[in-house]
Structures are given as structure tokens and as C-alpha cells.
Amino acid sequence: MKVTVVGAGNVGATCADVLAYREIANEVVLVDIKEGFAEGKALDIWQKAPINLYDTRTVGVTNDYSKTAGSDVVVITSGLPRKPGMTRDDLISTNAGIVTSVTENIVKHSPDAIIIVVSNPLDVMTYAAHITSKLPRTRVMGMAGILDTARYRAFLAEALNVSPKDIQAVLMGGHGDTMVPLPRYTTVGGIPVTELIDKETLDAIVDRTKNGGGELVKLMGTSAWYAPGSAAAQMVEAIVRDQRRVFPVCVKLEGEYGIDGVYLGVPVILGKNGIERIIELDLNEDEKQLLETSRGHVKEVMDALDNINASKA
Ligand code: LMR
């Protein structure tokens, strides 16, 4: 299996590293526009192979998409990360141009690839990649739900003093403050979380999760990378190993949850064909309302992208 990761910054390099050391692909191609940057990162990962004992070949290239030809999966991490005080949406005009041109290059050389978008604003960059690639919606998806649920699960594990491995959760909506964590679908070793934690603590964890990316931007002056890169690698693994894992993933909705034409995180089954199935939960009225708020926000940013594209046409 061949996997390309576009963008050799912190997120892309972390993703490539996880793909290599966990031997998720036979070959990982890392691409960047900065001369020598991807080559250096790929070489460093390859030189770690005798220490960490893996044989995935890692190759770095400067903007040479011919080397990505025949990729089974492509992860797009290109674009600017945010700085303190910025929202993800503030990145739209710069990152949309980058994601669009990267996607054009990808599909030219790997027309059968499955594309995973990581660039922000996530839901709208997934939209940009989807309309550019013209691939079926099951083959173009965004990584956010695994990251957001991981944060939620980590905070819960800390509060309950249990292993994060035992926390199962699902979260829906856009990758932003309007995301919809679902305590009703959160369990700890099979026990509903509400039986183990008081409402006030749970509400505080839900809030912290919604602002999880921003908390890290404030601490580090730039966006996170270990969890986002690992989350993208986990999606690649589910696809290349046809694991049929159930994850929240950003995809274009076409009637599911009563929503049409908007890109939102929903639970799906991920396997060799990409999104094998979208799972429709029976949401209660409060949850439906939260999802509707999230839909409205993502749609506004999609409209902003449409306006940017129209002004260029
Ligand atoms: C994250 O959630 O860590 C990413 O979307 C990056 C960011 O700026 O928050």
C-alpha cells in the first residue's frame, strides 16, 4: 500500500511517522513546497527504522507529485496553522487555494486515491477537496471527529482516573466551537458515563473539548500536531487494512440527519472503499438542535468559500 502525506509540517510529519513505525503502509511519500523539507523529514523517519524496527519506506519530495502516483490514500495537511486569537475559519482564503491546488495534483497522479483532509477550516476544506477532485463523497473525507473524541475521552479518563482505552464516545457536527459531543452515547467500559460523573463536571469536559484545539494554540502559539497526525493515521489504517472501524468523520451529507449538501462530522464505517456506510443515530430534540446550529455555522463558511471562488472566476 502506498500513502502520500501532503505537507511535511508538524501534523504531516507526525502522520507520516505513525504510518511508518506502525507499518500501516509499505511506502509513505511526504510532499512539501519548501525545498528539501519533506526530503529531510522523510530521511529522518527512515533513519529511525533500525531503532524502532519497521520497514516502511519513507520518501520525501519537493512539490513533485509524479512521485505520489498510484497512491491508495492521500492525507492533505497543507496550509497555515492558526495563531493565538485566530479561529479556524480565519484560515479559509489562504488554505482553500492551497487545498484546491494540492487536490488537483493528487487526482492527476492518483485518480483512484481516497483523500483525507486535515487542513482547516476542516469541514470547508473537505468541501473544497471534494468539489475539486470530483470523486464520490465516500472517497473524500475530513479528519476531525477522531481528534475531538480523543480529546473528550482523554479529559474523561483524567477526571475518572481510568484508562482512556475504556472510554467509548461519539461526537458529531463541525470541527469548531459548535461541535456536538454526545454524552448519551458515551460509555466507560460499557457503563453510561452519566452513572459515573456529575453533570457539572461532564458539562465542563464537553466545553473543554469544544475548545480543545484553541487551548493548545494558546499554550504553544500554534496548532496541535501529535493527536491530529495520529488521528489521520488511524483513518488511513482503517482504510488500508479494511478494518471497518466506526469513527466520526466529516463527509458531505445527502439527506442523512435531514441535512443536504453540507459537510459535517457523523459516525461512519471506514473500510477499503473509504466511507462504507454513514450511521444515522436517533438523536433527541436537544441533540438535533445542536447539530442544526453546527450545520448552520459550517454552511455559512461554505458560502464564504463559494464567494471567494466566484470572485476569482
Ligand atoms: C486542532 O483541533 O487541533 C486543529 O484543528 C488545529 C487547530 O488550530 O485547532
Care to describe what's here?
- Catalyzes the reversible oxidation of malate to oxaloacetate.
- Keywords: NAD, Oxidoreductase, Tricarboxylic acid cycle.
- This protein is α/β, with parallel strands linked by helices.
- The chain contains ten helices and 14 strands.
- A six-stranded parallel sheet has the order 3-2-1-4-5-6, sandwiched between helices.
- Helix 1 packs parallel to helix 2.
- The radius of gyration is 19 Å and the shape is globular.
- It starts with a strand and ends with a helix.
- The model has no long low-confidence stretch (mean pLDDT 97).
- The chain binds (2S)-2-hydroxybutanedioic acid (LMR).
- (2S)-2-hydroxybutanedioic acid binds next to helix 8.
Provide tags for this entry.
binds (2S)-2-hydroxybutanedioic acid; Rossmann fold; 6-stranded parallel β-sheet; L-2-Hydroxyisocaproate Dehydrogenase, Chain A, domain 2; 2 domains; 3-stranded antiparallel β-sheet; globular; single chain; 313 residues; EC 1.1.1.37; alpha/beta
